[in-house]
């Protein structure tokens, strides 16, 4: 997903940037008393991201006949929610860098990072309320609120499930898919559904776009797992060093475990439990991945979900918005970073 | 605030308890895959709290002529939001115990505590959406969403400001009042306004209840500060050991600093910067508090805000709900724990 193929990306980048800067705290003149939260949230929001989720919301609204200008605040809110989850994720994963700069918790401390993430979660709904001034009917806004809040709870369920799966080294493709659906696809699907509802789409189109987002999100995450196994020069067939060091359970590993022999499993266990030197582990895991054809099978699984996303889009009438959404499907499985 | 003087408290306790237990993740059958978030959120929600914020919401709805049953889900959401802030606060403050049990982060780890707090923030809005099924018009729900989201952002501003004030040991009554207004009073005021809006109150009653909640919240926090200076046997005139150890800036200390002589300030600095042994610090600070009459002046300031809360209520028509709200005003300044 190198580039969002749409004029919406530039629009979103400006809107998100201006969001926190233009925000003034409610009900009080602060009379020169510092407001440290503003600086922290601006820092988090102004780093350039892919803006993928807000653009999904805009295009979903467009593809059901809605106007981009009406749902722009809600799209900004979607990005606030995504950034909030990144801020909290970085604390949890101990990732020091984010988007080429120190993570919020490294720059401002963990306490401020927790609070800034919380503030950006509330911003989702403050943004959503602004759609009223843009002329969106209240009934649509309430429906979008429910969709977004449910996606948020699902995201949290996915994060808790990921921690649980990792802690017991579960290698179970069903549990993996449930985790990915909750952790990644729920926000994709929520952004699509919210856009469709705010844009005034009928229930069957809202549902189709929800299925599109769900399938796209799962394909996106599988591809993310696969990126560890490829370089600019092509597929390496070996896992990424960082995935092995972090004992991250990626789909290729899970499929290799399920398809492998007892000996293959013993090799994977040893490598993932840190019982082998890193070079030895990379070679050993690479060998099992090849013999079980786990990379090819993961790629095929991603393709299943992109097919499903494309099929969901076919339920919508032809439009420029739908064309852009279809473009995402192909890019998801061909992206290299 | 030993007891909420209302039948609503029992009702709320049941509703909050059942909330997470009855909640099922959206859109998928989990087929025996564990859902660790449920257990963590249930743990956090089922500890008995004062349920003060949700009861404020119910009584505010009642006092403008609304029905308790219609706004019950929103009240449950208010408690979810309060519990979320406690979960995150306990991580930030390093408080090991909450409501007589280990804090969530002590029981389930920091990572899970961050995620569980996030989930409960989203629950605020999922609860709010349920008011639709109870028959509340969409327009009121959107207004309530905006009020609650703004209160949430203000709460975060207050937490960030508190950290900033504490780190530079600022002793400034204006900054203190702004911090208290954001950190404590915003949620009180938000709960009251949300109840009034959902209950169908006209703008002037919504505003009056917002002012009531704001003033009550400030008085509540000042009283909380004062609790460190009293025992069951009466006012000690000395600060609490934990407040001195944590270098917590309470209103009596701030007023003593502003009213004291240069020598008084030097004594307070030495005590609060940990340069004195704890017993010596307690005696020294106690002496300055007495000579500056800081406790009496803090009590008087709390009384100013309870008077303001009572005056705001006088703008509403007489009702049982209003009587209960008036009862809270008196209890706020007379509570001993």
UniProtKB/TrEMBL annotation, chains A, B:
Q: Which cofactor does it need?
A: Mg(2+)
The record ties this protein, via PROSITE patterns, to: POLYPRENYL_SYNTHASE_1, POLYPRENYL_SYNTHASE_2
Q: Coiled-coil ranges per the record?
A: none
- Asked if the Swiss-Prot or TrEMBL record annotates the protein with the keyword Iron-sulfur, the reply is no
The family assignment reads: Belongs to the FPP/GGPP synthase family.
Q: Which InterPro entries has this protein been placed in?
A: Isoprenoid_synthase_dom_sf, Polyprenyl_synt, Polyprenyl_synt_CS
Source organism superkingdom: Bacteria
SUPFAM superfamilies from the UniProt entry: Terpenoid synthases
Protein name as catalogued: Geranylgeranyl diphosphate synthase type I
Q: What class of enzyme is it?
A: transferase
MF terms (GO), sorted A to Z: (2E,6E)-farnesyl diphosphate synthase activity; dimethylallyltranstransferase activity; geranylgeranyl diphosphate synthase activity; metal ion binding
- EC number(s) per entry: 2.5.1.1, 2.5.1.10, 2.5.1.29
Give the Gene3D superfamilies listed for this entry. Answer: Farnesyl Diphosphate Synthase (1.10.600.10)
Q: Which GO terms describe its biological process?
A: isoprenoid biosynthetic process
For this UniProt record, give its keywords in alphabetical order, as a comma-separated list: Magnesium, Metal-binding, Transferase
């Amino acid at each position: 997903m190198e580039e969002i193929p749409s004029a919406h990306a530039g629009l979103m980048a400006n809107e998100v940037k201006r969001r926190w800067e233009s925000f003034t705290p409610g009900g009080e003149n602060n009379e020169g008393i510092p407001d440290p939260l503003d600086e922290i949230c601006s820092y988090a929001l102004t780093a350039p991201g892919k803006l993928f989720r807000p653009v999904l919301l805009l295009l979903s609204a467009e593809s059901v006949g809605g106007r981009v200008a009406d749902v722009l605040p809600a799209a900004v809110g979607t990005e606030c929610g995504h950034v909030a989850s990144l801020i909290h994720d970085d604390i949890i994963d101990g990732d020091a860098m984010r988007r080429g700069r120190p993570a919020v918790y490294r720059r401002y401390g963990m306490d401020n990072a927790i609070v800034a993430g919380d503030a950006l979660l509330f911003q989702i709904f403050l943004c959503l309320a602004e759609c009223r001034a843009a002329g969106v009917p209240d009934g649509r806004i309430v429906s979008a609120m429910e969709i977004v809040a449910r996606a948020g709870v699902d995201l949290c369920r996915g994060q808790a499930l990921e921690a649980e799966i990792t802690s017991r080294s579960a290698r179970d493709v069903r549990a993996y898919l449930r985790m990915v659906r909750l952790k990644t696809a729920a926000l994709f699907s929520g952004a699509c559904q919210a856009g469709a509802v705010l844009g005034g789409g009928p229930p069957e189109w809202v549902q189709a776009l929800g299925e599109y987002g769900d399938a796209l999100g799962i394909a996106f995450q599988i591809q993310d797992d696969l990126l560890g196994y490829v370089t600019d020069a092509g597929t390496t067939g070996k896992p990424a060093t960082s995935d092995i060091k972090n004992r991250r359970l990626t789909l290729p590993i899970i499929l290799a475990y399920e398809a492998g022999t007892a000996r293959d499993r013993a090799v994977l266990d040893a490598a993932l439990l840190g019982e082998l030197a890193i070079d030895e582990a990379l070679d050993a895991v690479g060998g099992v991945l090849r013999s079980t054809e786990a990379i090819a099978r993961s790629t095929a699984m991603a393709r299943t979900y992109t097919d499903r996303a494309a099929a969901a889009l076919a339920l919508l009438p032809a439009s420029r918005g739908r064309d852009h959404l279809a473009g995402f499907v192909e890019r998801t499985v061909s992206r290299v970073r």
